[in-house]
Amino acid sequence: MMKSLVRTFRGPSRDPRMTYVSRPMPRDLRDEDVVAALALALAEDANPAYLVETLPAALKQVTGRDLQVLDRSVRDVTGAFSKVQVMIRDGDVGRWPGYDSMSYPLLAPSPKAEQTRAAIVAADASGGAPDSPRGPKAGWEPPPPVSRR
Fold first, then answer.
1. Is 77 exposed, middle or buried (0-12, 13-18, 19+ CB in 10 A)?
2. pTM over 0.85
3. Which of 42, 55, 85, 147 is the most exposed place for a label (fewest CB within 10 A)?
4. Helix, strand, or coil here: 88?
5. Sign of the CA dihedral 113, 119, 120, 121?
């Protein structure tokens, strides 16, 4: 009870790395332990988009417990805005039914995907082949205009 009271007065950690962790966290998980685990996870891979993969092992090393780390990152369609956040859970608390069926590539895009995207953009920028068909199929021409009487 005393720890809970101290945490209430002190408030959450003001470490800037704690912005990657969404609240609430498990009751008996201290902010200091999470900051230490974040330091280990970010030392392994400095890209915070991979915290879902690196943070569970770091939490196990710091706390000695198996905690679940769920991805709660948000991105817009254009990719101009993204906010990386993870949720630390003990058990299935806070796990919604569609999470397991969700496609997992919420992580950072792979270098291969970026190379493919760049190749597509380069092909579109060059305009393609000059003799490329104008319609949906090769040899297709639009119908003649309707004659008016």
1. exposed
2. no
3. 147
4. strand
5. positive
What does the alpha-carbon distance between residue 85 and residue 52 come to, in Å, rounded to a whole number?
A: 9
Q: How does pLDDT run across 23-47, given as a tens digit for each residue?
A: 888 888 888 999 999 999 999 999 9
Q: What are phi and psi of 77, to 5 degrees?
A: -65, -35
Q: Comparing C-alpha atoms, which of 5, 59, 11 is closest to residue 33?
A: 59
Helices (H), 70-146: 111-126
Q: Are 85 and 22 in contact (CB under 8 A)?
A: yes
CB 76 within 8 A of CB 59: no
- Calpha distance 52→30 (Å, rounded): 19
Alpha-carbon distance of 106 to 117, in angstroms, equals 17
